[in-house]
Amino acid sequence: MTNRLFKALMTSAVLGLSATTAISAAECIAPANPGGGWDFTCRQIGKIMYDIKAVDKPVQVTNMPGAGGGLAYNHVVSERSDDGDLIVAASSATTTRLAQNAYAGMTADQVRFVGAIGADPGVIVVAADSPFQTLGDMVEAIKADPGSVAFAGGSAVGGFDHLKPLMILKEGGFTDITKVKYIGVDGGADAITQTVGGFTQAMTGDMSEVVSFLSNGDIRVIAVLTEERVPGFDDIPTAKEQGFDVVAVNWRGLYVPKDISDEKFDEWAGKLQQVADSPEWAQAMTDNGLAPFTKVGGDFQAYVDGLVSDINAMSKELGVIQ
Amino acid sequence: MDILSNLALGFGVALSPFTLFLAVCGCFLGTIIGALPGLGPSNGVAILIPITFTLGLDATSALVLMTSVYYGAMYGGRISSILLNIPGDEPALMTTLDGYPMAKQGRAGDALVLSGVASFVGAFLATIGLMLLAPSLARVAFLFGPAEYFALYLLAFCTLGGMASNNQAKAALAACIGLGIATIGVDSSSGLPRLTGGNLHLYDGVDFLVAIVGLFAIAEVFFFIESHGKGSSIGVKLDKVRVPWADIWETKWTMLRSSGVGFVAGILPGAGASLGSFMAYMTEKSIAGEKGGFGTGVPKGVAAPEAGNNAAAGGALVPMLTLGVPGSGTTAVLLALLMTLNITPGPTLFTDRPEVVWGLIASLLIANIVLLLMNVPMVKVFVKILMVPAWILLPGVTMISFVGIYSLSGSYFDLLMMVGFGALGYILRKLDIPTVPVILGILLGGNMEDALRRAMTLSDGDAMYLFSSPIAIGLWIAAIAGFVAPMFLRNILKKPQAVTD
């Protein structure tokens, strides 16, 4: 008897733990495992919304990894399309995959994009002892011998990290982009490891992925892909000032199901704006190497639509998709 | 004595009644999570992360709780491996090979105590290693590029041949099935989905936990149904639980060697605890040779994988803390926790936030001692739970498996796939094909392929690139030796045996 009682207690302890957060009203789906950018978006935005009383109960975070966000997208489109209490973390990766038709035929107009409140600037990084001092040096070297420079990045071939150096090279007048070597590894830190180890010559990724390596002296950031230099990292030159007009940031934001009411949509947009304006979010951005980037509501939907068609056109041009 | 003063700082942070209480809770929960099939350390830790936020714990307390759960799960995984022949999580896979036969011989208590001690030795040495060597060991990750990783995985596969107890061809077949399953999903070198049939659920490939629970737990249920609920292979005899001092003493070198092997495997990003326990087991098996009787329930076969996987768990913290590169699935989740606590791991963490690092190390040491105390005297409790009749136990295990797997991605597709793996496991066992190589194929196949494809991209398809560094060449030699040596050694080893007989 005690055995069974004990077993029941064990089971209920485990089940109970997973259920404790299920009572809250709003839910944020992070379409990845804990630890990535999407998980960060849900947890930080959810926490700040509750802390500044934009929502009256803690936001429950659900991790729904799979197919680079595709599973969660499919779930929202087909099963939760009128759930007004649901928000989903999104980023440039979401739009890149939609643009490259990597969500099994689903399109960007099947959900509504609420807004972005922060962006992770794209960076090009080399090892400290690399001969490349500027972006120009690197582009010239690739022009001379395309096989001499290999890039490592955290996304798969054709993903956003891969597109960044290709955009720069295109801007620099190099067109034979299929010759450019790129390996997709497990995340930005791994890509840095491969670059510092000398297996690849450069790393392409986001600012947040390199912050912790900067003070160590193992790497040099030769370009940041923003309009202006990033506050706090003022000694890192932009690609633009080096003559390559490329801006590539990984925005962090949210989408909601398509069939919710306009009032509900505006309500979420308002809450997101409140988070964007809060000192807590400002602090979270500084701590994580994010640059300010706020586009909320109708503006943002237009921005996303433009982005999807741009990336689609670029991917075709670059030969990443047919 | 920098380390001692640092450690004192760490204990100062970690040693308060409240954090001790958290460590005990974490260890207990972790052991249960590890023991339940389908709930491994990584999803166990992931499920508990929201709790730390709800409780409003500060960074140190949250870390103590999570690392206790992590180490606890590494300890707990062995319990269902030994008692049910169902691995509680993927690193505990190798423990089934000798642990379950040992339990069937009526030595379940011995196996549990011995594996508990081995876990302690592995984890303790790894924590010491982490403490002394972390900053310098971080550089090891820089030496491993695609060619070296490929050779490392190849080494793991080459030793597979010696794993099947009676029929090598069947083991090879099983490994091929695993490798085949590993090719499902988005190919990271081209970004295109393979063998997914357009199904989004298959884009990330097949999760090992789904495969493990299906092949072991669900297949067991099918066998149980076939026998009309009578005479299941599940259920072990309970003897008097005492500390098997002789076995512990006899396996002392095994534990030390396995801790070393596991720690090194853990340090390499991506390889993780499963490779650690596998390598430790295979090393000991080849050292013991044919006479060692590995696979029949020998103490060394229980001690090796447990010391190995717990040491790997500690080793995996090295690249996570020093480079921000997680060495295993669970450390990826811990990394997430650190980042949400606004601590960014990286090369400067040891100097910038010593209280976090040393608090963590101190809490690991505390967790370890709590776990040893908890696991040795409490073994009886765990044995008794699993002593309940199979007709009560199996449905319970099945239910927990379903809940555990559903918690992975919250999709019913994983459940269907798990049942499919159950059917596969049933067929394989009917054909007497071992299921462990299938899992290893799924576990390592994808990484091995990625490493090869990356190497080929970097070298423009030049195969000689695979032999381009001393480390790679060394691993290749070890792999070839591991594959060929057993064939020759068998002859040499058998002769003296015949003489003495």
UniProtKB/TrEMBL annotation, chain A:
Alphabetical list of InterPro entries matching this protein: BUG (IPR005064), Bug_dom1 (IPR042100)
Keyword vocabulary terms for this entry: Signal
Signal peptide range in chain numbering: 1-25
Stored SUPFAM superfamilies: Periplasmic binding protein-like II
Signal among keywords: yes
Pfam families recorded: TctC (PF03401)
Family as reported in the entry's similarity comment: Belongs to the UPF0065 (bug) family.
Protein's name according to its UniProt entry: Putative tricarboxylic transport membrane protein
Organism of derivation: Litoreibacter albidus
From TrEMBL, chain B:
Tree of life domain: Bacteria
Parts of the chain that traverse the membrane: 7-33, 45-71, 111-134, 140-162, 169-186, 206-225, 261-282, 323-344, 356-376, 388-408, 415-444, 464-489
Name of the protein in question: Putative tricarboxylic transport membrane protein
InterPro entries: DUF112_TM (IPR002823)
Pfam entry (one): TctA
DUF112 domain mapped to chain residues: 20-440
Keywords of the record: Membrane, Transmembrane, Transmembrane helix
